[in-house]
Amino acid sequence: MSLVLDGAPASEGIVAGKVFLLHWGVPVVPHKTVEPAEVDAEIERFHEAREWAKERIRAVQGVTEERLGQVEARIFEPQLLMLDDPAVVDGAVRYIRENHLTAQRAFEWRMLELQAMWSRTSQPMVLDRLNDLEDLMIRVLHRLLGHHDPSDLAREPSGVIVVARNLTPSLTVHLNPEHVLGVATDQGTRTAHWAILARSLEIPAVVGLGTVSQRAREGQEVILDGRVGRVILDPDDRERAAYKRRRARLKDWEGEIAVIAEQESVTLDGQPVALRANLDLPVEVDQARSHGAMGIGLLRTEFLVVGRNTMPGEEEQYEAYRKVAEAFPEGAVYIRTFDLGGDKFPMFLHMPREENPFLGWRAIRVCLDEPELFRTQLRAILRATAHGDVRIMVPLVNDVDEVRQVRALLEEEEEGLRRDGIPFNSGYKLGVMIETPAAALDAAELVRHCDFFSIGTNDLVQYTLAVDRTNTRLAKLYNPFHPAVVRLLHQVARVSRAAGIEVSLCGELAANPLGTFLLLGLDIMALSMAWPSLPEIKKFVRDIRIEDARRAARSALAAPTSQDVVHCLVEGIGDSVDLTVFAGRWSLSLPQ
Ligand code: PEP
Ligand code: MG
């Protein structure tokens, strides 16, 4: 009997292979003490293991830098810093000196204390630090116990799907895409560092599967679908055949991508549609280009700060932004200012623990309260405007006053750049993300202060419906086709059109064909999405008529329920596109 497990899609691709169980766990450490005369030697042994671990991590960092670039390699810095942190080192040494514990027991105790302290938070980014801490425990303890390093994946067989409780960035970077076909984990989220790395390495991954590491057996046959977030253990003939069909379709599709990337993005009846990519890491620019992105509709700049111990300097930021701008000499690049808080926390900022972080100190609110952080970023982006059509986009804006404050800061920074003789393009555009009902309803005011709007439906939906976007239990209620959302989208589009500014949309909804149809029908002609979705959305755009989309959007605006909205869209698309191709991926409940 096969076993189907559903989790969350973290990295695209459909693969089949054999289970490779990765036991990356904290070893059992026996309670032992040493003789007083052995204390110094034990402390020495602890320092040796610490130095060894640093070397291993630096080696991993080197591989990461080679494969993914400098920015990604920095995610190991917190681990290196932790190994020198007096809170860790002095604490463990004290246990050896005062309690005569063995080095392994002393280190374990100290790390468990820190773990208990940090576990009291529920903030995902602090929880990510806990992953780093566990990573160090595993590495150092195995060393002190004289075991092999379990992260040594060099002898890993080919054609495997790695199944683990969770991964870490350092393990992920060791995964050789030629051997490892995919990754399935019990825990983790799409935004965990290792999942971001898996996407950059193009290793399909499914996270949050609950118990896959307990249910899977070594060598067992497994199918992993990183598009829908599903894993099938011991698939039966029917499932194998379905997998082969999906895989074949995907292969054909991969062949088509290059062709589609070159085609014009225009509807059957001649309406041009701007399709741009969302980037989480600058290293993704090449894939964005090869998938036909006309520009970058959203550069999430948090990669520069999350998990870092120090604030990123102006020069480093400028280089990162410039790299993206130069990759798109003919397209616009929308750089979003730091969207911290919510579920993203840098280590260098003291972020208070909040009851409702998504309703708390987040995005522009943090930036305006932390002028040093914000001004440095604004200067770096301004400098990048000299290298392309770089636009500045501000997240989670609620009212005009926030835009005024940003503009005032920008004017001061511009003045500074002029004074220092540093080039920038003074004609750059400044716009806001429409992510709250307040911003959508107040669009007519905001529009007078903005050069563009970009609608962030990932947040707009959660704030409109009061449904936490990260809460799996509420996933069914998180419905972007709710009539209230449709009306807000319509309102923002109408205001933008009247004012003659560009309105684009960069939430996940843009990559959902029903969403695309609705948005085009509402006159939102610029869409930005994760790069893997670009070709299929372009193909979809080329198969539909804007007139049909407009008619369907008009009906959708009058529809009383989400189901009716979906019905109007499906009817409007009619036979132009086979929607069943998308159904599994988007959980589209298509009328029979
Ligand atoms: C959004 O909210 O739709 C968006 C694109 O921003 P993020 O997903 O980064 O919050
Ligand atoms: Mg958002």
Question: Cα-atom Rg, whole angstroms?
Answer: 25 Å
Number of spatially distinct domains:
4
What is the topology, as strand order, of the major beta sheet?
1-8-7-3-4-5-6-2
> Residue ranges: pLDDT <50 for 5 or more in a row?
none
Mean model confidence by pLDDT: 90
User: Which word captures the global form?
Assistant: globular
The kinds of small molecule bound in this structure are: phosphoenolpyruvate, magnesium ion
Q: Give the tally of β-strands.
A: 16
Q: Distance between the terminal alpha carbons, to the nearest Å?
A: 29 Å
CATH level-3 fold name of the largest domain: TIM Barrel
State the helix count: 24
The first-level CATH class of the largest domain is given as: Alpha Beta
Protein structure class: alpha/beta
